[in-house]
């Protein structure tokens, strides 16, 4: 059995990959609690740790140290120029985030057709993949919470509340004006990106929505597209099985 770890800036996801090729997500934990989470798992017959990280180097070092102390081999997955049928668009390929890379790799195994992947977390990433597996590039933009935070921290009289809504109508109060505006900005970026992708691909792409920020998109719009939640872990599982 192998342990899969997706390390982000604030949280880590941990999954176990069984010998039959299936994986089970064990949970999402604060990065600062990583050692406490991993130590009891290492006594359960783990024969390798496979991880990818977009977080601070301290998290990477913690994983390496824990594996070394437990005498368990460890593999850190990094972005490549080409692998698993995907060709990276970046000239300096190593600078494409490994989370985006693993998402592209995972999707390519399932869809052999033009695809757009929209991942909304702290940041929104928008990636375009051609039918032959060529990554055509993408965008990075603030996610919903980051947009909200930026406005709230850099103005004096704009405020919000905790009520959740999916509307993007014109608001008649400040709190809804900010929330609706940020949702409209997300949707506008995605719609414009899709129009550009259609033009570049000369085809209607499969659209994949992922990440916790998808909940801020209008359900009436988002329901027309596929939703996936663990694409990075799926990519990690692929590397764990094949490398």
From TrEMBL:
Coiled coil: none annotated. Pfam families: Pan_kinase. A monovalent cation. Ammonium or potassium. It catalyses: (R)-pantothenate + ATP = (R)-4'-phosphopantothenate + ADP + H(+). Keywords: ATP-binding, Coenzyme A biosynthesis, Cytoplasm, Kinase, Metal-binding, Nucleotide-binding, Potassium, Transferase. Substrate binds at residues 90, 97-100, 174. GO terms for molecular function: ATP binding; metal ion binding; pantothenate kinase activity. K(+) binds at residue 119. The active site is at 99 (proton acceptor). GO terms for cellular component: cytoplasm. HAMAP family: Pantothen_kinase_3. This is Type III pantothenate kinase. It comes from Photobacterium chitinilyticum.
